């Protein structure tokens, strides 16, 4: 076992503890960025001037009339930008555009003494537009060859030969939707300047370092003049990996120009209208099976809907390509990926980061093919699992496939799968109007950033003279429990009760050059860095402990060490070893390990309306040796339900008519965009952590948990397909739209009736 994964006998990691801020969250005492803003004197409020066109040139922009509005202090336009007028890293995202690229895009910002003054001021800014033709759907983009970024190809073996040698060949296509993050806290930034013109930004950001870099380049100053702090986020889900930078830059620019604190906080409607979402995809595919239902070859083209600019679309696409196999061995593979440019928000990271989209393609294929192959879907899936010694299409050996087998077997048993399947078949035969469906699906998800350089992290650990400990690390807290885990790691590494350790907010002047808290790797990377810092301190204390004897208290040890002039603080660092990734060739071993999980879901569907309920879900998920079991179970439940929302409820719609509203998001609020809530929770949800699952390559034997459980939700989509099939003659392939809303389920049932 590696030093990194070894766990002492008495360890605070592994204890079931509540989230470190749980009490603050539920009593409303937890502070978020905008709470701090509203406690700040002399505050200015920013409001955007939003374009009413999906695509247009700005022919005139006159801020003057806004200054007649009482309370308006300053209008920010492109002329005010001292540095680079761009909010992204690809230089395709002008902060103040001359060409409008989506409906609702901000073309200027107004600062006011009150938000109301800024809002009225924004309506007074005069803007003339020359509307241009717009592209809204992926299908339109494909027809017009509107693409952006790289077009990678993932290839192994000889697809033509594989298809030729197959006894069953199927072709199909699917167009599936994206997803709104709907974090409870919308985008928020607060910027202040000091006497030296340095900028301090509090931002709801998953990537403080990149927020710092973008603010610096917009202002034309160096990174050491910009400090970004993230206290906590009320959810990020990937939506705050890149999207906060522009809002932070607006606040920072306003603060530099006025000398006053500036607050940007979007309303829900602005947030949904202006910020990027999960990529929807369009996929065409051809697949071959042999007589036993074993996959022989897959040929596919995946086109993601990137929206107006690239931001994270390229890495999201890479991860989609790396997950089209999900848990299945496919000897011959060729998958082409491309990114459509459309006149919509810039689609971005969202829990799973393309992985769910890649997996949806293969799970859809298996679900559609099973009845035609005459093999039950769960049996078809099981037969195609990876076995030891096989590698993914990009060349990474699949380590520990036996864990997937174990999780699968455990779910089959604990869910009483076979007996319920028979019982459901009997019940369905008797009930023509209400059918039940039961399905089981696997998840295999690669952990690490594909881009090798991002797999590094830092930490700063201070031991004060009284023996109390303050830790800082490069990760951000968005509700996922990272800080809870880091406190447990530090307490374990130092051998202290957790009460002796406190955690300070994430700041770029404490730990520099950090990666985004993303790719589920927050605990792996920062945990190893925290552990490293603690171990440096423990090593320095060892000679003092030898002098004083093992019975000495921590306080005495620290006091003595101080007087002996021993450094009581340390900076920790970690980089994940053994990774490689060639993005152009789409080959390498980009992942430290795979996280596995299995879910079985049962649904019941009403044949008259398509309305359905999720009646029971059984999950076994692999988190290695959990750092914090309560947190991990919360992540599994939350991820699963968020996935169910994406696949079955959440329905983003844009106005695709040729009318004046073309390009407008028509579902910009909670009243028009249906999210899963308590009433959509499965009536019976059973989550178990896979046992005997120590991960040798990660901190204290744990595994990442943030994203993989989202993809357990395929079980619900496949259960709906089973239920729809029960309304139709046996042996028919069932096509299901995504999201499989009650309406879509109704049409799937109808499709079989005529
Ligand atoms: N859980 C909560 N409560 N809120 C969030 O915003 N984001 C998810 C996941 N779980 C999120 C969450 C996403 S997209 C990722 S990548 C991981 O948490 C990031 O945190 P980690 O790396 O510490 O797991
Ligand atoms: Mo998560 S989508 O990697 O922020």
Automatic annotation (TrEMBL):
Residues 27-133 form the Aldehyde oxidase/xanthine dehydrogenase a/b hammerhead domain. The keyword Oxidoreductase applies. Gene3D superfamilies: Aldehyde oxidase/xanthine dehydrogenase, a/b hammerhead, Aldehyde oxidase/xanthine dehydrogenase, molybdopterin binding domain. The keyword Iron applies. Its EC number is 1.17.1.4. GO terms for molecular function: 2 iron, 2 sulfur cluster binding; iron ion binding; molybdenum ion binding; xanthine dehydrogenase activity. Its cofactor is FAD; [2Fe-2S] cluster; Mo-molybdopterin cytosine dinucleotide; Mo-molybdopterin. Belongs to the xanthine dehydrogenase family. This is Xanthine dehydrogenase molybdopterin binding subunit. It comes from Nocardioides immobilis. The gene is xdhB.
């Amino acid at each position: 076992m590696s030093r990194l994964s070894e766990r002492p006998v008495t360890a605070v990691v592994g204890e079931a503890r509540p989230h470190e801020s749980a009490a603050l969250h539920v009593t409303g005492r937890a502070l978020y960025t905008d709470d701090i803003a509203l406690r700040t004197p002399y505050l200015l409020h920013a409001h955007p001037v939003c374009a009413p066109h999906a695509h247009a040139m700005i022919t005139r922009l006159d801020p003057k009339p806004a200054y007649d509005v009482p309370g308006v202090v300053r209008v920010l336009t492109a002329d005010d930008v001292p540095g680079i007028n761009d909010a992204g890293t690809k230089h395709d995202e002008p902060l103040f555009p001359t060409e409008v690229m989506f409906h609702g895009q901000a073309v200027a910002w107004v600062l006011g003494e009150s938000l109301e003054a800024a809002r009225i001021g924004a309506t007074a800014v005069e803007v003339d537009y020359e509307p241009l033709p717009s592209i809204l759907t992926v299908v339109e983009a494909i027809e017009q060859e509107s693409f952006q970024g790289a077009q990678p190809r993932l290839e192994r073996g000889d697809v033509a030969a594989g298809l030729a040698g197959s006894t069953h060949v199927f072709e199909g296509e699917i167009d599936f939707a994206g997803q709104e993050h709907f974090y409870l806290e919308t985008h928020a930034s607060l910027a202040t300047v000091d006497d030296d013109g340095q900028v301090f930004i509090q931002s709801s950001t998953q990537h403080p370092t990149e927020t710092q870099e973008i603010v610096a380049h917009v202002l034309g100053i160096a990174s050491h003049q910009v400090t970004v702090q993230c206290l906590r986020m009320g959810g990020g889900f990937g939506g705050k990996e890149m999207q906060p930078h522009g809002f932070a830059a607006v606040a920072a620019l306003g603060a530099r120009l006025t000398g006053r604190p500036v607050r940007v906080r979007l309303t829900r409607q602005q947030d949904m209208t202006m910020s990027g979402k999960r990529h929807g995809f369009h996929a065409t595919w051809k697949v071959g099976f042999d007589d036993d239902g074993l996959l022989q070859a897959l040929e596919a083209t995946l086109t993601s809907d990137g929206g107006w600019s690239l931001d994270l679309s390229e890495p999201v696409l890479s991860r989609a390509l790396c997950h089209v196999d999900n848990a299945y061995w496919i000897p011959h593979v060729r998958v082409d990926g491309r990114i459509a440019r459309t006149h919509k928000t810039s689609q971005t990271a969202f829990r799973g980061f393309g992985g769910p989209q890649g997996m949806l393609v293969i799970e859809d294929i298996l679900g559609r093919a099973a009845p035609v192959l005459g093999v039950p879907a769960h049996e078809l899936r099981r037969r195609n699992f990876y076995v030891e010694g096989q590698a993914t299409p990009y060349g990474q050996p699949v380590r520990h496939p036996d864990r997937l087998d174990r999780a699968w077997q455990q779910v089959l048993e604990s869910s009483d799968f076979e007996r319920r399947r028979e019982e459901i078949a009997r019940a369905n035969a008797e009930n023509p109007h209400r059918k039940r469906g039961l399905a089981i699906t696997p998840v295999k998800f690669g952990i690490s950033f594909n881009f090798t350089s991002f797999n590094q992290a830092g930490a700063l650990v201070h031991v004060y003279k009284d023996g109390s400990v303050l830790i800082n690390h490069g990760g951000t807290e968005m509700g996922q429990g990272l800080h809870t885990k880091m406190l447990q790691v530090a307490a374990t590494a130092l051998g202290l009760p957790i009460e002796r350790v406190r955690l300070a907010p994430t700041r770029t002047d404490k730990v520099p050059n950090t990666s985004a808290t993303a790719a589920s790797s927050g605990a792996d990377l920062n945990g190893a860095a925290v552990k490293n810092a603690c171990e440096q301190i423990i090593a320095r204390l060892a000679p003092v402990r030898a002098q004083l004897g093992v019975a000495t208290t921590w306080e005495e040890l620290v006091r003595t060490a101080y007087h002996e002039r021993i450094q009581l603080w340390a900076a920790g660092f970690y980089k994940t070893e053994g990774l490689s990734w060639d993005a152009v060739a789409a080959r390498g071993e980009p992942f430290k390990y795979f996280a596995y999980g299995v879910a079985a879901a049962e649904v019941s569907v009403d044949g008259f309306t398509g309305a359905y309920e999720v009646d029971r879900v059984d999950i076994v998920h692999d988190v290695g040796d959990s750092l914090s079991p309560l947190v991990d179970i919360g992540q599994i439940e939350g991820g699963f339900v968020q996935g169910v929302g994406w696949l079955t409820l959440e329905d983003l719609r844009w106005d695709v008519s040729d009318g004046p509203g073309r390009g407008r998001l028509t579902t910009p609020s909670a009243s028009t965009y249906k999210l899963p809530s308590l009433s959509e929770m499965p009536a019976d949800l059973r989550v178990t952590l896979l046992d005997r699952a120590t991960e040798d390559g990660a901190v204290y034997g744990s595994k990442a948990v943030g994203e993989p459980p989202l993809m357990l939700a395929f079980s619900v989509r496949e259960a709906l397909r089973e239920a729809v099939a029960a309304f139709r003659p046996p042996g028919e392939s069932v096509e299901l739209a995504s999201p499989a809303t009650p309406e879509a389920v109704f049409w799937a049932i109808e499709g079989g009736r005529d």
